[in-house]
Amino acid sequence: MMARAEDLAGRSSNPAEWVMPGRDYAGTRFSPLDQIKPENVGGLQAAWTFSVGKERGQESALLVVDGTMYVVSPFPNRVFALDATTGDLKWSYVPNQDLAAQGVACCDVVNRGPAYDNGRLFVATLDDHVVALDAKTGQEIWNAKVGDINLGETITMAPLAVKGKILVGDSGGELGVRGKLTALDQATGKVAWTAWSTGPDKDVLIGPDFKPFYDAAKGKDLGVASWPPDAWKTGGGTIWGWLTYDPELNLVYYGTGNPGPWNSNQRPGDNLWTSTIFARDADTGQARWAYQLNPHDLWDHDEINEGILLDLTIDGKARKVLVHPGRNGYMYVIDRQTGEAISADPYDTVNAYLGVDLKTGRPKPNEALHPALGKTIENVCPASPGAKDWQPAAWSPRTQLLYVPHQHLCMNFKTGEVGYIAGTPYVGASVDMYAGPGGYRGEFMAWDPVKKSKVWAIKENLPVWSGALVTAGDVAFYGTMDRLFKAVDARTGEPLWQFRTSSGVIGQPMSYKGADGRQYVAVMSGIGGWPGVVANAEVDPRVRNAALGFAGATQDLPTYTVGGSTLFVFALPAQSGPAGQTPGPRPTSAPAAPAPGPAGPQ
C-alpha cells in the first residue's frame, strides 16, 4: 500500500533529509540546517566525490533518504545509491533503453532526477519509461511505457510523488510533440489519468470544476478552437519542468511549454493551452484553473519554470500564492486558489513585451518586434531561453527572499515555413543569441516578491544555469558554467566561498545531515544542457545559430570547460562540527578550493 501525501510531506520536514527535488511540496529548496553560516562557510572542504560515468549535462536532483543519496546520470539514466556520509556505492541500476532516444532529444540527454515515496525510487528515462525500484536494493518493481520516441517524445523531467501516484510529463516541443501530464499508480505503474495540454476539453481534463480567473480561458474546447484546423495535434505544450503540490487544496501546479512550431505565423490564435500554468486536482487530474501567460507565444517562451508555493502578506492581506519567475522576464505572484495574477514585474531586460495587463492577465505585445515571416527581427529581449529557464530558484522563510539563477540574453530571430514530419525538428526559426545590455550573460539575484523588487544581484559572465539552494544558516549556493560552485550571504549577496569543480555546474545544489552529525552540501558538476552542448558534444561553436541559437551566446564556453560527470559533496572539517561527533571521511580526488573571487553584488 502506497504512502499518503501527508506522510511524504511530513518526511520532507526532517532537516536531515532531502526527499523531493524541491525538498518539499512547495518547491522551496530551503534547508533548515544551520551548521554552515556566513562566518564559517569559508572552511568548506570536499568531503567526497563520485563519478556517474557519463560526461554530458549533469542536471539531476540529488535525494537523501534514510542515509542514502540517490542520483541519476544522463542517458542511459543509470541510477546510483550512495552512502550519504562516505560516498560508498550501495547499488546501481541501468535501465534497458532504446539507443535511438538520444537522436530525438532536443537539448542534450539530461535527466533532472528521481522521486521517492514509501520505500520506492521512481525514475523517468529518456526513452519514455517510468521505472519503480526498491530503494534499498535497486531491484526493479515495475516498468511502464508512457510515450513514443518515434513521435519525438522523450522525458527529461523529475517526477513527483503525490498521494499514491507518480506524475510525469513529456519533452519534445521542438519536434511537434503534444504535451501531456501522466499520473501512474505507484503500486502497479498503471495510468490513473492523463491530462493533455492541447485538444478538446475531455483530453485536457476540463470539466464543471474548471473556474479560470480570466475571461480568455473561459469557453468550450479552446484547446482546439484557438488553433488552425488540426494544428493542436502537433502543437507542443510539453511538460518538462517542475511540479509542486498543495496538500491542503489538493492541487498540483505546473507550467506547459511553448507551442509548435516556433514560427508563430503558421499557428494564428492564442494556441491554448501552451505557455500556461495549470492547477489540477491530484486525485482526478481535473483542471481547477488555468492561466496562459504568453498567448500565441512568439519567442519560444515556455512557462515550465517552477511555481513556488508561499503564504505571503500582500497589501495587508494573507494570500496563498504561487511565485513563478517567468521565462518571459516577468516575476509573477499568482493567487494559487483562483489563478489571479496579483503582480507581474520585470526582473531582467524585457522589450519583447511592454508589460502585463493585470486586468486581463495578458502581456502587452511590442508590435515593433513582431516576427514577420522571413524577416530578421533584431535585439529581442529576453532571448528564446527566456530571462530564466528550468534552473530552479530557492526561497528562504528567514529572509523572505527568492534566490533566482538566470540568464541575461537577447537575440536576433527569423521565422521560416516548416513542415511536420514525426520525430524530426519542427521549429521554423533561426536564432542568434548574445549577451544582453551591459555585456554579461548571467545573474544570481535575490528578489522580494512582496515589494516586487530586486534586493541584490551578482552579475556573471556566462548564463547561470544551475539551481539555487538557501539554508537556515543564511547562506545561498549556486554554480557557474565556468566551473565554480559558490556560496554567498543570503541577506547581502556578499561572496563568501567558491570552489573550482572539474566541469561547468548546471546541477541542483542541496543540503543534508550525515550520520556523523555534519551538514553536507552537494551538487553535480558536468556542463551540458541547451547552453552547454557546444562544450560537451560535436557542435561547432563557430556556427552561431547551432543548438537552436544558443551557440552564439556561448561560443567561448569550450575555453572554460569540457564535459564532466562528477558529484561533489562538501562539509566543514569534522573538528568544526558539534562536539563529540566522529570524524568524517577524508576528501577524495578533488582540487583545492581557491580563495573567494572578487565578484560581488552589483
Automatic annotation (TrEMBL):
Q: Which cofactor does it need?
A: pyrroloquinoline quinone
Q: Which domain of life is it from?
A: Bacteria
Show the SUPFAM superfamilies listed in the entry: Quinoprotein alcohol dehydrogenase-like
Keywords, comma-separated and alphabetical: Metal-binding, Oxidoreductase, PQQ
- Pfam families under this entry? PQQ
Checking PROSITE patterns in the record gives: BACTERIAL_PQQ_2
- Please list the residue ranges annotated as the Pyrrolo-quinoline quinone repeat domain: 18-342, 456-521
Question: Where is the segment annotated Disordered?
Answer: 576-602
Where are the compositionally biased (Pro residues) regions?
Answer: 584-602
The Enzyme Commission number assigned here is: 1.1.2.-
* InterPro entries in UniProt: PQQ_b-propeller_rpt, PQQ_MeOH/EtOH_DH, PQQ_rpt_dom, Quinoprotein_ADH-like_sf, Quinoprotein_DH_CS
The record's annotation in PANTHER family points to:
QUINOPROTEIN ALCOHOL DEHYDROGENASE (CYTOCHROME C) (PTHR32303), QUINOPROTEIN GLUCOSE DEHYDROGENASE (PTHR32303:SF4)
Can you tell me which family this protein belongs to? Belongs to the bacterial PQQ dehydrogenase family.
Q: What is this protein called?
A: PQQ-dependent dehydrogenase, methanol/ethanol family
